[in-house]
Each structure stands twice: as C-alpha cells, then as structure tokens.
Amino acid sequence: MSLRRIGLLLHREFVRGPKNFMFIFAVIVPLVLSLTMLLVFGTLFAEKPRLGIADAGDSQFTHSAAATEAFTVRKYASEAELRDATAMGAVDIGVVLPSDFDESVSSGKTTTVTAYIWGGSLLKDRAALAATTATWVRQMAGQVSPVNIITTVLDGSVVLPWEDRLLPLILMMGVTFGGLMIPASSLVAEKQQHTLAALSVTPATMVDIYAAKGLVGVTISTVMTLVILGLNRTLGNSTLLLAGVLLLSAIFAAEAGVVIGTLVKDIDSLFATVKALGLLLYAPALIYVFPDIPQWIARVFPTYYIIHPVIEITQHGARLADIAGKLGVLLILILALGGLLALLTQRMRYRH
Amino acid sequence: MTELAIIAEDLTYAYGQLMAVDHISFDVAEGEILGFLGPNGAGKSTTVKMLTGQLLPKAGRATLLGIDVARHPKQVQAQIGVCFEVANLYETMSGIDNLELFASLFGVRDFNAEALLKRVGLDGRGKDKVSGYSKGLKQRLMVARALVNRPQILFLDEPTEGLDPTSAQAIRSLILEEQARGATIFLTTHDMHEADMLCQRVAFIDRGKIVALDTPHTLKQQYGKRTIRAEVLGDDGHLQTREIILDRQETPAEIEALFRDAEVVTIHSEEATLESIFIQLTGRELI
Description:
The complex is a heterodimer. Chain A has helices at about 5-15, 20-40, 60-65, 80-85, 100-105, 125-140, 160-190, 195-200, 205-230, 240-265, 265-290, 305-315, 320-350, and strands at about 50-55, 70-75, 95, 115. By secondary structure, chain A is mostly helical. Chain A folds into two domains: about 5-40 and about 160-350, no CATH class; about 50-140, 3-Layer(aba) Sandwich (abc type-2 transporter like fold). In chain A, helix 7 packs antiparallel against helix 11 (about 265-290). Chain A starts with a helix and ends with a helix. Chain B has two domains: about 5-220, Rossmann fold; about 225-270. Chain B has helices spanning about 45-50, 75, 95-105, 115-120, 135-145, 165-180, 190-200, 215-225, 250-260, 275-280, and strands spanning about 5-15, 20-30, 35, 60-65, 65-70, 80-85, 155, 185-190, 200-205, 210-215, 225-235, 240-245, 265-270. The chains are: A mainly alpha, B alpha/beta. The interface of A and B includes residues 16, 199, 201 and 349 of A.
C-alpha cells in the first residue's frame, strides 16, 4: 500500500467525480429531500426565539440564558442599544436587568425588569421566551413552582414529530448514496471501461485502488450526513461525537460499497443488488418512521447500529457512554467487512 | 551472451474446462521483438495476462527480467509497459491527464507528456478529452501510456488492429524506436505481414499450444515453397496464371518450357507467407 498512490487515485476520483451521475445523485438527492421535508413541515425558515439582554451587572439570569440551546441570546451594552435592536427586529424580546437584579431576587424584594417586544415577533416565540425567563427567575429566587401541571399527550401518533421520524431515512440515504454507491459505482465503471486492468499493471495495488475509492465514499458520506443534520438543526451538543459516529457509519458503508462493487459485473447488476439490499439498509429507518412497530426489530439489521447512535445523540443528547455498546457492534461490523474485503482484494489481484 | 528478458516455462491456464493456454514454454532475448501470432481465441491474450501478472497461471512459471511474475507482480509491473487490445483509457480525461496519471503512479519524475504525445503523433491533441478521439488516436495514446515509464519490456496486444494505414505505420515506427532504445517487445498480432516486418522471431499459437517458433526466414524455408508466378496469354486471348515451384530438379526445364511455349506477360518470384505457413501448420486461418 502506498499513501502517495492512494492520494493520486483519490485526487482523480475527486476531480472527475463531480461529473459522474452517481456523484451528483449522492449529493443532490439527500439535500433536496432534506429541504423538501423542511419546507413541508414549515421549519426551513423558522429561527430559534431570540432573546436580547442588557445586563448592568453580572446576573445569573444572563448566564442561564447563555447556556441554553433553545434560544439565540444576544447581549447589549446599554438599554438604548437593546431598545434599538429590538425595534429593528434583531431580537424578539429584549430584557433590561438592573445591576442589583440577582440581589433583589434572592432577597425577595420586588424589582422592576423592563422588557421590549418586537412587534413582528411570533406569538409562540414570545410565549416560549416569557415562560422560560419566568422559570429562570423562580430558580434564582429558590422558589418552587406553586402549580404542578400534569400533562397528557393526546393523539399518541404525533408524539414524535414527522420531521424527526423521517430524518433517519434521509440520513440513511446520505450514508448509502455517498458511502456505498459512490465507491461501488466507481469500481464497476472501472471494470466496465477496462481501466481497472490498466491500473492493475502499474505499481498501484488493489489495496491502493480500493482505499482511494473507499475514501471518496467516506468523505462524501460524512460531509453529506453532517450537512443533512445541520440543515435539520439536529447537530445537538456533541457535534464531535456525532461526527465520529457518522465517520464510522461512512466507513461501514464505504466498505460495503467496495465489496459490492467488486462482486457485481456491471452498473445494472449494481442497481439490482442495491435494490435487493434496500430492505436490509433502510429497515431500521423505516421502523423508526412507524413507532407502533416494535422498535426492537430494528436491532436485527446492521444499519440500526448507524441510525440508533445518531438518533440518540441528536434527539436525546446521548454521550459516548450511552451509545458505547451500539458503537461496539458497529466497530465489529466494520472489522468483519474489512476482513471480507481483504479476502476479496487477494482474489481480485488476478481478476479484472 | 544475450540475457533473456522473458522466460515462460510450461505456462498453463484454463477457463473452467476450456484449456486456454496449454503448457507453453518459450523465451525472449533482451532487445528482441517476438511476434506472438494466432487467430482469435488461440490463447494470445491469456498468455500476455499471465506474463504481465494479471492472471495467475494454473501451472508453470513466468520470469521477467529475472523476477518471478507470480511472486512479485508489482516489482515486474514497475518495469514493463502494457498496451491492451481493448481501449481502456479514462475517456472523460484529456490525453495529457491520462498520461500524467499513469506516470505519477509509476513514480516517474520530470515526465514530459507533450514530448511523448509528439512521438505518437498526438501533438496538439493532448488537451482534448479522450472521448473525442478516433480509434486510431486512442490506440496511439494507449501505446504512449505503455511507454510512460520507459519500460524494459513492452507488451503490445494487437496494437494496429483496425487502424488506418497512417496510424498503423506510426505505431510500427514507434515499436522499432523502442527496440532501438533497448526494449524487449512482445507483440501479439494476427497480422502476419506486420509480424514479418517487425519481428526477429515469431511464435504460432493455436488452441493454446505453440505450434512453431522461429525466425520468419527459417519458418519460410522450413515450411514454405518458393514459386514463380507468371501470367501468360492464352490461346483464347485471355490471361492465364502459371505457377512453378522452385528448388526442384525439374524447375529449370519447366521455366524454359514456359518461355518457349507461351507468351509471358508478367513474371514474379514468390516466397511463402507466414499466413500460408500458419494454415499449413494448423489447418485454419488467422481470423
């Protein structure tokens, strides 16, 4: 194996790839589907509620606000600045905190907080901001809520919003098209155009060739899945962990792509194979779309170990320890495919 | 003593039950052009694939430049150039990009693609995409690609098949230039005329076996018949062809009789062709 030759072949893939049908397909389709979903569910242009704060002191309120992911928080040096910003629609609600705000709240004294509301702000954003700020103040004052609200979800079918249910499906498309189809189709094209034979009589080894094809898939898959999650604003707090999981997913998909590309003869057989494997690839995502189906069934399918950790991180704020078991299975799958690939590489050394 | 660039010992390959190459042995000296001749399906390409490390022989051994091909294919491949029978270029890339990619894979430094393109008569077309090239231009580019690493052994699989005379001549000239440089050339063809022109020795392969291997001259002497072919004016006023086989006791008398008894219009001496020898040896033609 030579890193220099892998680099050369990788460069060729990236320079020539963008003109390839499958390359375009892998990039465009998940993006279009993501944007369509966002448009359909009306969340494409929706922003987080924006809270402006002019804090004369160094209030705990400001720290609590800064720590939240739910709002966009902007700080202003003076009340006048905050007022102008709110008037221009830079924030939905602007709150002016006096310098002795924390002291007053903790001692139980009544204090006045001025709030400016932008006339164009959405009612749901105003309500969310108002309710949350009230909770923060109550926490600062050390008060327990005087009312216990018992919530009952009606129409259980919408417990999980549709955009959340469909996200794994689109994510799997990003993984499959980018990670699996690009290396597989590139390999099949080299076979059909006999260029693989030309490469095979150079010092480049099959490992070099496979590595270059696989790396293209890994790169496209990782980038595309990150873009899809970014577009859906579901990157969550653990972006690095998420990127790591997506990278492992991409490696798994790329290995599968190279294996399939090695075994099938032509592009028609490739599409037929991927269609046949469709259920195996997409089943966990489809099961997730329908919460009434027993979710444990998804565990039977290898791609569950891609989807589940991603969902756990993006939707439930999971940490590495929470998903370590699933990632372990994914690593075992990667190693198993790697072993299969090593066998095929040995076999392909003399077959083109 | 001349070193041997290629040694094939008992090389064998079968596709399932079909024996494609049946225990063949031969060698090629350094700087020699060996013509490997045979009809389609005779086993020429399979032999080339085994010699170039693309196929693992079922039996036997191939040694190139003193290296066992099956054991160290990449070491061998770094020193050889292969021009395939089927066009296998990156069609969406330019001619220059194709050559530069392969030169880089071979680790060639200071590679001059333009100079190589000029050698094969593709100067001015290097920046064009290969998909826009004619068959002849693609073939020239394939030959150029086989030369990017200045190979010590050059394998050319039907390099002039289906080409226009100009392209074919350009490739033949290049083969002779490479030989002059010191390269050994393994030329697979079913063009007997080409083999006769270029090769020091030719091997006839038929149904996976080598049926003859020698210089064209020796083969012609051994198997061929030298003849005189004359056109004479017949009694009816039409031209008739007469053939006299040379190198026999009665030949002088037959020639004398020809000139005495008939009005000779044209007369030519003819040597046996490699094609006629091949037919004589195998009972079938070269197509």
